[in-house]
Design brief:
Chain lengths: 355, 349
Amino acid sequence: MNDRLRTSLGTSLRPLLRWETGLALVVVVIGIAGASVSSEFFTSNNIFNLGLSYGEIAIMTLPMTLIVISGEIDLSVASILGMSSALLGYLWARHWPMLGIFVLLAVVGLAAGAINGLLITRLGLPSLAVTIGTLAVYRGIATILLGPNTVANFPTAYTNLGVNAVPFTGNDITYSTAIFIVLAIVFGVVLHATPFGRSVYAMGASTEAAQFAGIRVKRIKTVLFMTSGLVCALAGVLLTFRLNTAVQNNGLGLELYVVAIVLLGGVSIFGGKGSIIGVVLGVLAFAGIQNALFLTNFNQEAAGIVTGALLLLSVFGRNAASFSSRLRAWLPAGRRGRGPDSPVGEPPPTAITPT
Amino acid sequence: MSTTVVSRSERPPAPAGTGTRRLTERVFRIRESGIIVVLAVFVAVTASIQPRFLNITNIQFILVNTTVFALLALGETMVVISRNYDLSVGSVLGLSAYLSASLFGQHHGIPIVVVFLTGLGIGLACGMLNGIMVAAGRVPSLVVTLATLYIFRGIDILIVGGKEVVANSLPAAFLNIPKATVFGIPDLAIAIAVVIAIGAYYLRSFRSGRELYAMGSNPEAARLAGIAVGRRVFMAFTVSGAIAGVAGVLWAAQYGTIDSTAGTGYELQVISAVVVGGVAIFGGSGSAVGAALGALLLNTISSALYVLGISPFWDQAIWGFLLLLAIALDRFISVRLTAALRVRGARHE
């Protein structure tokens, strides 16, 4: 009876203890704090600006979520964005029709992702190293294309997409926000409600087990990287139109922000765990904090301190209890009377402890 | 029956062990000489097109430019060998560069040694913070150092604000550190080469150095073998931080002008140099000398492109391509090595 009560309590309470729930609370707290430090926080003008500032980053977090859950990482996202932006400028300056450019950018994005995916899955190279390499290569292509030049004479019809609101939504929703919302729903459904999504979790939890279960791990991972390439090319177009500028260093360094948000959203760096709703909350928390600090005239660039702290919280929050006991055991005080190489915190050499 | 026993006792398993080690060491040496060959080819081709490349001033320039990266690569090598990553090196460098160099403006006539010790201290503190979180928290170092990358840089930005340290606030003796030479070789390059040699010797021959390799090749086995994994990880991060701190002071001496962007983006460049130098990205193999050669190669390429009049905009694409080539090559070597070791192991059964 008692046990049954406890299990039923456990099952009903467990969802409340999930990382996403905590993160939702954090978002609420940020909202309240933001509203109390500045009356502008919840105005539609500010929400619109939030969408402008973080739209492209937010869009790139979605394919990254799937890639990290599958057990890989893609550090080349911001370089694909930059390459797409540079190519857009390069071709526009050479009088290509805009539609033709869009088609080519989609192909280039897919190809960039395919190169990542094939190097990782077919040659068996670690994604961390491969995408650091392609980060340099794709950014290098952007710099080769544009050099020190800037292309800024895009037609107003297109740059309006970057700075105007979507019609019939009041003045709140930018095109990038709208695209993020649509893509978040699509990615959420694919990840959480299709066999494809389940297999992404499966390969993240154990590649071998997934392979034995008949999941085409290599093909799916390649598809994920290609999706990422395509989405990042789109983000590059949005960024270019928003700034009305194509330069070789557009979006430089954004990859680490994208990874930070995904991890903040509760996705495990080892793969197999995470959710789209968590990452969406991560985006809100990240953008909310940066924005609240901006409205309080805190040095905007130093806002990284708060992002970093949240990131630490996201990894430590989950194993706080075991951390404090290990820290106690590991600190020098516990070393008394022991040999120099047998700290208390480590299991004795002969003990075989599953970890 | 008895003959088998005799032949086994005549050939105890020890030679198998040393043979294995000899083979792996030879492969490492081949891998390192591979970088030297690539480097030599690059220098030869560039020099044949543009002899000015072998100009003593240009060589000195390349060597001095490499020192900061080679130092950072040494610290990163220790961390990567143990299957961890330190992404915060660029931010630590920036923090240390500004704080230490600004001492000259605040306290006139402060000894240069004190400034270097300050940089070392800042780096140590940052490295220990990383180390304690990774070791005691047992959380992935990629996440921890990604977070401290932002935190250290944020602290730097808060301290610096819009200010900057300018070269004429720095004493001439400090700015001359990268310029001094012995027989045409920059003093700084010699000093760094010695430091790297010590680091390489430590990793190759000391017990705690070998333990880093053990942890990198199989963390679980290393723990079960009684290696103090936590303490070794802590040590690796502390050393990496301390080195980044000193590199920050050298960076300040080299550039003279320091604002809050010093060292931005260095983390990925340093990891590239380490990987091009033959350190496996998932730990367990590679050497400090290789990593330093990797840093030298990347810097030489930049300089060669410049001398050849090729736009520096080609730089990044080329080193990215080189990195991809290096990891593909390493993969190929490790597959072949594993096969060779299996054959050897079978022969000694």
